[in-house]
Amino acid sequence: MGKILIVDDERGIRRALREILEFEEFEVDEAENGKEAVEKATSENYDIIFCDIKMPLMDGMEVLDALQVKNVDSPVIMISGHGNIDTAVQALKKGAFDFIEKPLDLNRILVTVRNAKDKTVLVQETKVLKTTVKKFKGSSIIGETPEIHKIKEMIEKVAPSDARVLVTGENGTGKELVARSLHDNSSRKSNPFIEVNCAAIPSELIESELFGHEKGAFTSAVKQKRGKFELASGGTLFLDEIGDMSAGAQAKVLRALQENVIQRVGGEKDIKVDARVVAATNKDLRLEIAEGRFREDLFHRLAVILIHVPSLNERKDDIPILAEHFMTIICAEHGIPRKSFSAGALKALQSVDWTGNIRELRNIIERLIILGGKEISSDEVELYANPKRKKLNI
């Protein structure tokens, strides 16, 4: 259900609240004064904090101020036996989620906890959305070639299920767009889409990134951290460049896929997770298996459905559509009037050897928009898109 911190100098109040919350299947932690509460809240993640106002060492209002300074975004529910309207208003102005008077009312507590938990979920989802909206702006799968139509049809069939999907293709072909489309067309679309680039994370940190860690699990683990499997629970976990994952992480991912259970690094508690896994790679995993670098049992767990994304050189008929698409997006991003391509320019783009695929095409279109005229010509494409022109050092 979640983890809650109870802050109160009265042991009886802490015990009563603990019994109520543990009955509702929350994990409960306690602090008997404000100083201890701030230390715990900055070293561990709590879904909700109950905080008394009148306490020794540091009162509840000071706790609120300290948590804001330390960027702790857990909802804080203030409790007090000496409360009045002015106190409640002051607490809410300081950022408290709610104010409850003692003696505590069971129904009021449960309603407030439910509302605070909803806020915590919204905060987490908002963080995820902020990091993905810009990246996926205008990121629908563009193209009319038979290869792209086949991918779209496959997504339409597969997305409503929870089947695991392995997306293959060269770097820059748009494998992440396939993963995003699978998520957006599934029943999980209102839940998080979490991406992990397995190649970008050092092998010694990948397990912590995927499964989280407990405080003190290793030297720099100063705070409990939830991993991507937990954050993606209810949604989709996209494991990009899965072929670069370490052997140790592969074994743990296999267990997570088999049992829907993980353990944080340094922890012993099994944590249930419910994330649909979509993986992607630019490697030939069967070759990796043959050479002992990738687990065959993990491959079969991941590759329930296989989707191959063709290179841009294999779908050059889509280049005019993609060029116009990127023209619209990039001009809007830069706040400049939309330019156009001459027929010759589009033909010239189709003649380029696109080793960097869609990613390279987008970069070249942006370069042409910035450096080219109102109508981009074939000469400008030759000038700015031809990597053999060494005098430009492009």
Short summary of the structure?
This protein has three domains: 129 residues, 3-Layer(aba) Sandwich (Rossmann fold); 165 residues, Rossmann fold; 80 residues, Helicase, Ruva Protein, domain 3.
Give me the Rg, rounded. 26 Å
Number of domains: 3
The named CATH superfamily of the largest domain: P-loop containing nucleotide triphosphate hydrolases
CATH topology of the largest domain: the name is: Rossmann fold
The low-confidence runs, each spanning 5 or more residues with pLDDT under 50, are 131-139, 389-394
CATH architecture of the largest domain: 3-Layer(aba) Sandwich
User: How much helix is in the residues?
Assistant: 40-55%
How many helical elements? 16
* Class of secondary structure makeup: alpha/beta
- The overall strand count is 16
Largest sheet: 5 strands, parallel
Overall 3D shape: elongated
Please tell me the overall pLDDT.
89
Strand content: 15-25%
CATH class of the largest domain: Alpha Beta
* Termini gap: 54 Å
**Spatial order of the strands in the main sheet?**
2-1-3-4-5
Describe this structure in words.
There is one protein chain. By secondary structure, the chain is α/β, with parallel strands linked by helices. It folds into 3 domains: 3-131, Rossmann fold; 146-310, 3-Layer(aba) Sandwich (Rossmann fold); 313-392, Helicase, Ruva Protein, domain 3, CATH 1.10.8.60. The chain contains 16 helices and 16 strands. It has helices at 11-23, 34-43, 60-69, 85-93, 106-133, 146-158, 175-184, 203-211, 228-231, 247-259, 285-290, 296-302, 319-334, 343-351, 357-371, 378-385; strands at residues 3-7, 27-31, 48-52, 76-80, 98-101, 165-168, 193-197, 212-213, 225-226, 236-240, 261-262, 271-272, 276-281, 305-308, 340-341, 375-376. The chain has a 5-stranded parallel sheet, sandwiched between helices. It has a 5-stranded parallel sheet with strand order 7-10-13-6-14. It has a two-stranded antiparallel sheet with strand order 8-9. Helix 2 (34-43) runs parallel beside helix 3 and helix 15 crosses helix 16. The N and C termini lie far apart (54 Å). The model is unreliable at 131-139 and 389-394 (pLDDT under 50).
